[in-house]
Amino acid sequence: LALETELRQAVDQDQLVLHFQPKFDLASGDLVGAEALMRWNHPARGMVSPVQFIPVAEETGLIVPMGAWALHQACRAAVTWNQRPAARQVKVAVNLSARQFATGQLVETVCEALSSTGCLPQWLELEITESLLIDKRSNVREDLETLAALGVTIALDDFGTGYSALSYLTHFPVHTLKIDRSFVKDLPGDRQSGELVKAIVSLGRSLNMELVAEGVETDEQSRLLAAIGCHMAQGFLLGRPVPQDQFEALLG
Ligand code: G
Ligand code: G
Ligand code: MN
Ligand code: NA
């Protein structure tokens, strides 16, 4: 069966699941949120990585219903986490694809996910990539402005690897920069990576943005990032993406 046909069935037959990778504040050590990452629990192949199926989902347009599903599930999870007694507020971050903006329905889809689950806008972050900001024809900027006005925050994923001009950082409502793991992986040994990360942190801080380092795998990396003023971190050192019940166990 072609992957496309199987993926259509996956959506209809509830084979998709969200895993959640924890995100921590580097200064306090507090768990501050999670990135929702889609997985395909395939009946024969087991857990299929999004690296394999997201490209197919994007080509076929299936990412639109899949993305709406992910938004809904992630919002539902955020409500569960934040409604616990004496809970510290945690945010859920959801990855968006350009195809979802192209529908012209994204704002409506996000509003639907928020209202039908009771999720507060400040519990939701949307991750976009720089390439989305280059697309001049589309409604991306207007949609992001509308979402930001609601109180949803916007993160630029894989920051530093795209081709967008830095001016985009001020022309779009971007709240968070996620430093791509390619810059983090050779820390602390590689001097050039260190300088690039410092420059990104300094840029982000001077624009009043939050900084998240991705792909943190060692203690040394975590300490260095904290020392240069990076606010938050995600990575295998701190926690892998896990099913929702395991993430909830981390909340205590
Ligand atoms: O979870 P990692 O395990 O392998 O994810 C690989 C890639 O798939 C990442 O680039 C991530 O942004 C992307 N991805 C994971 N979940 C989603 C999703 O719900 N929507 C979109 N558009 N991309 C996703
Ligand atoms: O592109 P995006 O940033 O959304 O992708 C998240 C991807 O990064 C997921 O595939 C996730 O499993 C992976 N990831 C998260 N933490 C680490 C890490 O510490 N090391 C490596 N190599 N990959 C990671
Ligand atoms: Mn991401
Ligand atoms: Na990323």
Automatic annotation (TrEMBL):
The identity of this protein, by name, is Uncharacterized protein
Species name: Piscinibacter gummiphilus
The organism's superkingdom is given as Bacteria
Give the lineage. Answer: Bacteria, Pseudomonadati, Pseudomonadota, Betaproteobacteria, Burkholderiales
